[in-house]
Amino acid sequence: MSFSGDIKNELARRFPDEYHCLLAELAAIIHYAGSLSGDADCGSIVVETENVALAKKYLRLLRRAFDITLNLDIRKLPSGKRNLYRIELSSEDVPARDAAETDYAGDRFSRVWRETADWEKPGFKESLLEYPCCRRAFIRGAFLTSGSMSDPGKSYHFEVVCRTQEGAEELCAVMESFDIHPKIILRKNKPVVYLKDSESIVDVLNVMGATGALMRLENVRIIKDMKNSANRQSNCDSANINKIVRAAVRQVEDIRLIERKIGFSQLPPMLREMAQVRLEHPEESLQELGTYLNPPVGKSGVNHRLKKLSEIAETLR
What is the pLDDT of residue 112? Predict the structure, then answer.
C-alpha cells in the first residue's frame, strides 16, 4: 500500500471524542467530497469516494453524531478495476426523532444539513471551527476526501485537491491557524493545496493525528540527513585530497625545474632540505612533510619554504 493509503487508513480509525469535533470532520467530508441538492426541509446529501476507509468512517461519524444508519452503495467504475462508494442521505429516507426527545429540534436529516452541510450560512464556518480540536478534525476530514502524500523516501510532497478556489483558500486558512503555510496551484483547472518542505509536513501530520505516519517520516528524515551528512563529508574529503594532490604536483614540478636550471647547490640550506624532502615524499601533506625536516617544522613553516621555492621557479621560468 502507498504511503498515502497508510495515512488514510490510520486517520480513518481515529474518531473525535467531542461532539463538535465530529461535526467538524463530517462537515469537511461533505464540503470536499459531497454534493447537495434541495435544502434542509426536502433535499439530499450525497458523498462519493473511491476510498472504502473514508466511506466507512463517514457512516460511523453519522451514526455517532446523529444516530443515523445508512447503507453503502458500491458501484464499479467504468475501468472495472476500482469501486466507487456512494452514500446518500435524503430527507425522505431518515425518520424524524422521537417526539419525546427534546434535545434537538427537527428531524435528523435537518440536523445533518444545519450542523454540517449549510456551509454558506453566515457565521457557520467560524462557529464550526471555533476550537483547535475542531480545526484538526476538519483538516483530517479534508485530507481523507482528496489528499495524498508522496513516499518521503523519494520526495516530500503533501497535497489536498479541492473542487473550488474558495474551498482551497478555506483549507489554507485553517492550516495557517496552526502556523502551517501551504500554497495553492492549479492542476487541470482544480486548485491544489500543497506543502513541499518536510518540517511543514511533519507539522500537518501531527495536527491531523497521524502519529504512525509521522514516526515513519521522521525515521526517513533521520536516515536522509545521515546520508547527506556522510556524502557532504565524503565530498569535502575528496576535495581536500584533490587540492593536496594538485598542490604537491605543482610543487614537485617547481623543484624539478630548479634542479635542472641551477641545481640544489645554489639554494639556501633550509630550502635545499625542503626541496629534497618534497621530492622524496610527493604524496604527503604539509603537516607530515614538516616531520621529516631537521629540526621538525610546523605546517606554516613548510608552506612558507615551498612558496619560496615556487617563487624561485617562477623567476626561472
Answer: 87
Measured between alpha carbons, how far is 37 from 75 in angstroms, rounded to an integer? Answer: 21
**Gap between the Cα atoms of 129 and 262, Å rounded:** 88
Nearest alpha-carbon partner for 196 in 210, 209, 216, 180? 180
Rounded to two decimals, the pTM is 0.70
Q: Is the pLDDT of residue 24 over 90?
A: yes
180 phi and psi angles, rounded to 5 deg: -110, 130
Q: What integer pLDDT is reported at residue 131 of this predicted model?
A: 92
Alpha carbons 20 and 126: distance in angstroms, whole number: 12
Phi, then psi, of 293 in degrees rounded to 5: -85, 160
Are 191 and 184 in contact, with CB atoms under 8 Å apart? yes
Average pLDDT over residues 29-43: 88
**3-12 helix and 52-66 helix, angle to the nearest 10 degrees:** 20
Cα gap 170→172, rounded to integer Å = 5
Q: Which of the four pLDDT bands, split at 50, 70 and 90, describes residue 105?
A: very low
* 190-195 vs 183-187, strand pairing mode: antiparallel
How many angstroms separate the CA atoms of 134 and 65, rounded?
Answer: 14
